[in-house]
Amino acid sequence: MEVYRKEYAEKLDRIDALHPFTNKFVKDDPNLIYLDGNSLGMLPKTTPDEMSRVINQEWGKGLIRSWNEGWYQRSAQTGACLAKLIGARPDEVIVADSTSVNLFKLVYAVLKYQDGRTRIVSDDLNFPSDIYILQGLIELFGNKHELKLAQSMDAMTISTEQIKGLLNHQTALLTLSHVVYKSAFMYDMGQITRMAHENGAMVIWDLSHAVGAVPVDLNKSGADMAIGCTYKYLNGGPGSIAFLYVRKDLQEKLQSPIWGWFGQNDPFAFDLQYEPSTGIKRFLAGSPPILSLSTLEPALDIMLEAGMDNIRQKSVRQTDYLVSLAEKYLFPLGFQLSSPRDSRQRGSHISLQHPEAYRICKALIDSETGEKVVIPDFRAPDNIRLGIAPLYNTFAEIFEAIMQLKQIAEEKLYQHFSLNRDNVT
Ligand SMILES: *Cc1c(COP(=O)(O)O)cnc(C)c1O
User: Fold this and answer.
1) Which of 133, 194, 353, 399 has its CA 20 to 30 A from that of 140?
2) CA of 243 to the centre of ligand 1 (A)
3) pTM score, whole prediction
4) Which residues sit with their C-beta closer than 6 Å to ligand 1?
5) In whole angstroms, what is the distance from residue 383 CA to residue 220 CA?
6) 31-47: burial string, b at 16+ Cβ within 10 Å, e else
7) pLDDT in tens, 69-99
8) Which residues are catalytic?
9) 240/289 Cα distance (integer angstroms)
10) 39, 37, 132, 32: which is closest to 379 by C-alpha?
11) pLDDT-derived band at 145, boundaries 50, 70, 90
């Protein structure tokens, strides 16, 4: 059938309204198919110029004067820009620190505010770092809290009933990834938040695999707090600064555990007594990394120009297309889908399971195997994650990647590779 041919993929690219956006990214290597935008997004062409302007003009010429010419406001200003992508008001988001540190700050704030409540709920599909942060805080608070993790039955999804079953009037906090990092399973944010609120629990959403991949409406969902990183679908660059959201009416009620001068009401008064800043700024700690911050706005601009709803529409078409090719070409070769089949229940990456997943990933990345280098990522024990970033991935790339997977499995080309694991997979 025509659908399973390369010409069909090329036709889909020709009629794709977002296709011109692929030119906004550095895609110099015609032999590279990059399907790892959910781990580290590609470099926007405008980013090096903006970074060089900040270095040469703002730092080189402006020197310390630049703090008064924009730097001081930049965390809040970039936060306001990001707020548009996640359905938040401009004064509800700041960029600061890493995702893990932001989670630490917010979990601390919740446990302090919800003093007397002793249960914390999450799930076993959550990103391990998030669980570590919870474990560390439980210890810091004197081991008074119990951590309850909903257990996935299929290593892919968690039902609403499972979360409901763990929530009670002792629950201080529910924290979940909106889109799960391995399977791409997506929670119904509004419904889960309501369930938590019925029990008096607060919710922190981790948006790391959601922001820039699916439309998020924090205000409409009634969400309390959220965190997320910017180097995945937001293309902010390696280790780029993370963000946090606190709903307006909660900001004055919550306290950051790090009483640094950037979170002080008037840092340049140099008063010796800490007084928390009004609003979201109280969650800042120290000087923001201005150079790292400078990569974010050019990347966000591209996303806002494309429009989150358009990005989602293309993402659904591309991931559905990928799954239908996988069904035809890969399932007969021992691959299984380990993401929800229904696009309404998943984000923008697709996980495939195969007993030889690790060596298949090695073979995909190797330049000697097949026509192109395909970069996916591997998640232990047997997941191949294919991240689809609609801003720069094409239908033709998806087709070619699937064909290469087919060839590697059919001809057992993975047998040429060692089973030894690299440090970063
Ligand atoms: C990527 C990711 C993080 C990253 O945390 P950092 O502290 O920024 O390294 C955290 N949580 C989730 C769910 C992620 O996917």
Assistant:
1) 194
2) 11
3) 0.97
4) 98-100, 127, 129-130, 177, 181, 206, 208-209, 229, 242
5) 34
6) eebbbbbbbbbbbbebb
7) 999 999 999 999 999 999 999 999 999 999 9
8) 127, 206, 231-232, 385
9) 9
10) 39
11) very high
